[in-house]
Amino acid sequence: MTLGRIEDRIKEKLASRSEKGLLRRLSPEKRGIDLSSNDYLGFARSAALRERVERKWNEYQGPLGAGGARLISGDSELYHELEREIAEFHQAPAALIFNSGYDANIGLFASIAGRNDTVIYDELVHASIRDGIRLSNAASYSFRHNDISDLEKKCRLAKGSLFVVVESVYSMDGDLAPLEELASFCERPGAALIVDEAHATGVFGERGEGLVQKLGLESKIFARVHTFGKALGIHGAAVLGSSELKSFLVNFARSFIYTTALPAHSLISVWCAYDLLKEEPTVINLLWERLMAFSTALASHGIEYSSTSPIHAIYFPGNETARAVAAAAQNAGFDIRAILSPTVPAGKERLRVCVHAFNSEDELKGAAKLLGEVKKSL
C-alpha cells in the first residue's frame, strides 16, 4: 500500500466518523461549572494539596527525571517508600506503581493470564482491561453486568487458571459491583478475583480506601488496581496484591518493564495526595452530602435517581438527543458531557454527571432543574 493510499484511508475514516457526529477533538476550553471530571474530592484544584507538594518538592534534593526504566536507572528509595505507604494504607501485602491506570491494567492482565487460562469479565469493564486481556492470549468471556448467574454459566467454559474481573464502581453507570457475592462465588471454583477500584479510590471507606476495604474483603481479592488520576487528583496507578504478585509483575509486566519511570515530582504529588486523604477525611463526607442533595434535587424535578457513587447516568436515548441536551446544559453554564454510542450501547446514550465535593448545593439544584425541564420538553 502506497503512502498516498494510507493517507486516503485515514481521511476516509475520519470523514465517516465526522458524518456520524462522532469525531473526537481535543479542546482546552472549559465549559462552566464542573460536572464532568473525575476530580471527585477537588484535589486536582486543591490549594492545600498544592502547598504540600511544593513544600515536599522544595525539600527534595534528587534528580528531576528518572532517566530510565525502574529496572535500569529509574528506581529510587522514594518509589519504595511510597509503595510501602500505599500498601499499608490499602491493607495489602505489597504495591507496585505504574505510570497510569491504563499501564497497570495492560501490564497486569497481559502477564498474569496465559494462553491456557481463562478470564471472565463483566461486560462493562474498562477498555484498558479488555486490551490487557486481549494481549494475554487467554480464553476470555464476558458476563452480563453484575449477573452472578451468568458468571456461573461462563465459568463452566473455563480451562486452566480462572480469573474473574470486575470494577468496584462502573465508570459509565456509576453503579457498584456486588463484591461480597462475587468474592463468595469465586471461592467455589477457585477463581482469582481482580477488582479495579479506579472510581472507588478516595470515595468509599472512612478515609477513601476503596469499596473492597469498606466491605472488609481485602483477603479475598487476588489483585486490586487503584488509580491516582481521579479522586486523588494526580496521575499514575498501583496494583495491590501479594509480594509474589509484585515480583511477578516486575519480571513479566511489559508496561512496567519497558517504560521510563515516573519523575520524582509525580511520586511526591501522589504521596501528598494520600497524606491529605488521611488527614482531612471530612471532604469525603462533604462529597456524600452533595451526592444526596443532587439525587434529591433530581427527584424533585421528575428524574428518579438513587445515588450509589459520584457518577450519575441520566438517559437521553439517541446520539442527537443526548448531544442537544448536553449543549443546552453547557449553554446554561454547566460542564456536562454526553456519552454517545458506540461508547455505550445504542439506546443507552446518556449524560454522565459527576458530582464533586466542591459543587455547591445551589449549583447542583440548578443543574437538576435544567435537566428536569429539558426531559419534560422532549
Model description:
It is a single chain. This protein has helices at 3-19, 47-59, 70-74, 77-89, 101-112, 127-136, 148-155, 179-187, 211-214, 243-252, 254-257, 264-279, 282-300, 319-331, 361-377, and strands at residues 33-34, 94-98, 118-122, 139-143, 162-167, 192-196, 223-227, 237-241, 311-315, 334-335, 337-339, 350-354. The protein is an alpha/beta fold and 378 residues long. The protein is globular, with a radius of gyration of 22 Å. The N and C termini lie far apart (49 Å). The strands form three sheets. The chain has a seven-stranded mixed beta sheet with strand order 2-8-7-6-5-3-4, sandwiched between helices. A three-stranded antiparallel beta sheet has the order 9-12-11. A two-stranded parallel ribbon has the order 1-10. It has 15 helices and twelve strands. It has two domains: 47-279, Type I PLP-dependent aspartate aminotransferase-like (Major domain) (Aspartate Aminotransferase, domain 2), CATH 3.40.640; 282-377, Aspartate Aminotransferase, domain 1 (Alpha-Beta Complex), CATH 3.90.1150.10. The model has no long low-confidence stretch (mean pLDDT 95). The longest helix has 19 residues, at 282-300.
Features:
single chain; 378 residues; alpha/beta; Aspartate Aminotransferase, domain 2; Aspartate Aminotransferase, domain 1; 3-stranded antiparallel β-sheet; 15 helices; globular
Radius of gyration, Cα only, in angstroms? 22 Å
Provide the structure class.
alpha/beta
In this structure, how is the largest beta sheet organized?
A: 7 strands, mixed
- By oligomeric state, this entry counts as single chain
Report the CATH C-level class of the largest domain: Alpha Beta
Please state how the strands of the largest beta sheet are arranged side by side: 2-8-7-6-5-3-4
Show unreliable segments. none
CATH architecture of the largest domain: 3-Layer(aba) Sandwich
Apparent shape: globular
Question: Can you tell me the CATH topology of the largest domain?
Answer: Aspartate Aminotransferase, domain 2
Question: Can you write the helix and strand succession as a string?
Answer: HEHHHEHEHEHEHEHEEHHHHEHEEEH
Count of distinct structural domains: 2
Number of E strands: 12
End-to-end Cα distance: 49 Å
Q: Helical residue percent?
A: 40-55%
**SS field, number of helical segments:** 15
Instruction: Say which CATH homologous superfamily of the largest domain is assigned.
Output: Type I PLP-dependent aspartate aminotransferase-like (Major domain)
Whole-number mean pLDDT: 95
Query: What amount of the residues lies in strands?
Result: 5-15%
